Amino acid sequence: MIVKCGKTALATLLLLVAGVLCAAPRLAHAAVGPGGLCQAIFNEVAASVGSYKNAITETGFCNEAALLQECASEGGAGIHHAEYQNPEDGTKRMSAKRILVMGVFHGDEPYTAAVPLLWFKRMKRINPRNSWRFVPVVNPSGLRNKTRWTLGGADINRNFPTKDWGRIAKTIARRNPGKGPASEWETRCVLAHLDSFRPDVVVAIHAPYGLLDFDGPLSAKMPFIRMMRPRRLGTFPGSLGRYLWVERRIPVLTVELPEPGRMVPEQDLELLQDWAGTLAQQYRKAAP
Ligand SMILES: [Zn+2]
Fold first, then answer.
1. Centre of ligand 1 from the C-alpha of residue 74, in Å
2. How far apart are the CA of 288 and the centre of ligand 1, in A?
3. CA of 253 to the centre of ligand 1 (A)
4. How many Å apart are CA 19 and CA 17, to the nearest integer?
5. 207 CA to middle of ligand 1, Å?
6. Where are the beta strands (DSSP E) in the chain?
7. Which neighbouring-strand residues pair with 81?
8. 126: left (phi > 0), else alpha (psi -120 to 50), else beta?
9. Closest CA to 215 of 193, 191, 244, 175
10. What is the pLDDT of residues 185-221, one digit of tens each?
């Protein structure tokens, strides 16, 4: 407990802000209920996902959604999540692994919420091997304002606290890394999910380049998914891929959906989910 409490100045600050004693740091991640604005956010998503709309109707997401304390914004909006926990998760057999799926890092890519929502909905139809947590909209204010960035003008995918964060060129507005590592509350919300869920594999959904960009073991064979070609683009200071794969050896699949008018067939997206599940089952993290 003491070690965890003193782990970073940021974590300690968060705990103090939340009014939580260091003796019970886990409370910092307690879910605080969905908030009345969940449905408003996802109505906006439904109006913006175009051809994916049929795939994501009646997901029931907001009925099961929760907010980590770090993910609640003022006014009850916030970054909602829902999950399916495999009953075997946490048992000695540990046959179930954990996969975290997130969309809408960039607010001008609203239809990227469709993949986590579709996969969440699919949990009800299948008998999943793994535990899954879904965060369909990481950047709700960007979604509302139809901008790539956070309210603070930052690109979340350059704001992760990688060791080399300071090497980011700050002159490119499109990739503005923010005022400092994890300066954005959206980034800190993702960090809280990583800390509380401890995923074995992370899937991040972007658009519109039609690519599968995998930061993970070279031995992993990429699936054949229509309209998305495999291409390893590498990672950057402050990016999720560098933070998780390069620095922590947690594989990250970045899904770049094609432009909104070209919907990836639902069965291909399901195949992709199964691939992520199999990767989580097979991947063995090397000892540090
Ligand atoms: Zn993006």
1. 25
2. 30
3. 13
4. 5
5. 5
6. 82-84, 98-102, 131-135, 201-206, 209-215, 229-230, 252-258
7. 66
8. beta
9. 244
10. 999 999 999 999 999 999 999 999 999 999 999 888 8
Between the CA of residue 128 and those of 83, 87, 131, 145, 279, what are the distances in Å?
Answer: 12, 10, 7, 36, 14
Q: Which of 70-74, 139-143, 161-165 has the lowest mean pLDDT?
A: 70-74
What gap in Å lies between CA 181 and CA 243, rounded to an integer? 11
Residue 204: name the closest of 277, 257, 149, 158 by CA: 257
Ligand 1 centroid, distance to 15 Cα (angstroms): 30
- pLDDT for res 256: 97
| Separation of CA 158 and ligand 1 centre (Å) | 11
- Here the contacts of 218-222 (C-beta below 8 Å, separation 24 or greater) are 220/251, 220/279, 220/282, 220/283, 222/275
pLDDT at position 173 is: 79
Q: Which domains does the chain have, with CATH numbers?
A: 1-29 (no CATH), 31-282 (3.40.630.10)
pLDDT at 64: 94
Q: What is the mean pLDDT of the chain?
A: 86
pLDDT digits over 212-223, tens only? 999 999 888 889
CA distance 197 to 189: 12
Asked if pLDDT for residue 18 goes beyond 80, the answer is no
Distance, CA of 96 to CA of 130 (rounded, Å): 4
Global pTM?
A: 0.87
Q: Which residue, among 117, 131, 122, has the nearest Cα to 84 in the 3D structure?
A: 131
Which tokens sit at 175?
């990739």
**Residues 6+ away with beta carbon under 8 Å from 134:** 61, 81, 82, 83, 101, 102, 116, 117, 119, 120
Quick check: bond before 34 cis, omega within 30?
no
- Asked if 252 and 215 touch (Cβ cutoff 8 Å), the reply is yes
